[in-house]
Write a structure and sequence with these properties.
Elements: E1 18-19, E2 28-33, E3 43-50, E4 56-64, E5 72-74, E6 82-84, E7 90-95, E8 122-128, E9 136-138, H1 148-165, E10 166-170, E11 175-176, E12 183-191, E13 203-209, E14 215-216, E15 227-230, E16 236-244, H2 250-253, E17 260-267, E18 270-277, H3 280-296
Parallel strand pairs: 1-9
Antiparallel strand pairs: 2-3, 3-7, 4-5, 4-6, 4-8, 8-9, 10-12, 11-12, 12-16, 13-15, 13-17, 14-16, 17-18
Length: 297
């Protein structure tokens, strides 16, 4: 099927994008998604589908959302382009810019229902057609069926509030018990220093720590709860004894988020989950530990 010729618009000059005739069906649709291995990496995917019936070439794509301070952008590496065959969706990875954080947000808020006019993101895609000089531009509303943008906004704003109180990280060393059935990870908490006192000192509460698809707390040694942290306090460590949370053959092979430790926190009027990522060294040690512990049964 040939791409329709625009009768109501003048063909754009070479290398200058021109608007698509709004009377015609848009040739490209856009959806927002996020793969599991993008969690904790401040990245999402723009899913483009060519519905024109003909071949298209995408030069750039961006997404405007009130949840972020700048547009979310994708550009091909090396100044190239992306071939977009008809009917074959392509996922374009894009980094998230800094979030817009308003008062009263909560990490437990639900996203707006699908199709809601509230906070609808608008995409802009620059593309070319075979036999047509220059670039054209189309601006469809992007579908965000799973509330990816709002969820990431809430998580980033919560993380920013928590980071203003303390730096929280997992120590790179894993202490494995002699029987290899349990191990200890250390959560290192370094409060931010301040010269002030009283109501200007920020604080947060770690209400609980959740397990992951790989590790969990032993029943006889539960992880701490309702731990208050304040600016200016001394550095501290939480020694968390862990056990495998699952031992099926695919636990490690298919792992995406098993080494992201979720902290349920309350800070700055917000509540939600902050995920603390294990570094490369610790991640490998956790994989080895789970493998050995599961082998022992």
């Amino acid at each position: 099927m040939a791409v329709p010729v625009l009768a109501a618009c003048t063909a754009p000059e070479p290398q200058e994008p021109g608007p698509h005739d709004s009377a015609e069906p848009l040739p490209i649709t856009v959806e927002v998604d996020q793969s599991r291995d993008q969690y904790g990496k401040q990245a999402i995917e723009l899913l483009l589908t060519n519905v024109s019936g003909g071949s298209l070439t995408v030069a750039a794509a961006r997404l405007e959302s009130p949840f972020f301070q700048r547009d979310i952008q994708w550009e091909p590496t090396g100044g190239g382009s992306l071939e977009l065959p008809p009917g074959q969706p392509k996922s374009l990875p894009a980094r998230l810019p800094a979030p817009v954080c308003g008062p009263g947000q909560s990490g437990t808020q639900l996203p707006p229902p699908p199709g809601s006019a509230t906070h609808q993101p608008v995409a802009t895609v620059r593309y070319s057609e075979p036999g047509q000089a220059g670039l054209r531009e189309v601006a469809p509303v992007a579908a965000d069926h799973f509330g990816v943008l709002e969820r990431n906004n809430l998580e980033l704003c919560l993380a920013a509030d928590a980071a203003a109180v303390a730096d929280i990280a997992l120590d790179p060393g894993l202490a494995v018990a002699p029987d290899s059935r349990t191990a200890v990870v250390r959560l290192v908490i370094t409060p931010k220093q301040t010269d002030g006192a009283g109501p200007d000192v920020k604080s947060m509460t770690i209400t609980s720590i959740a397990g992951t698809t790989l590790i969990a707390e032993p029943a006889d040694d539960p992880w701490p709860r309702n731990l208050r942290i304040a600016q200016g306090a001394a550095r501290s460590e939480l020694r968390l004894r862990i056990r495998p949370s699952r031992c099926d053959p695919h636990a490690i092979a298919e792992d995406k988020v098993g080494t992201l430790l979720p902290l349920h926190v309350s800070v700055g009027g917000r509540e939600g989950q902050v995920k603390i990522a294990a570094g490369t060294a610790l991640r490998g040690q956790i994989y080895d530990f789970v493998t050995a512990a599961c082998a022992r049964g």
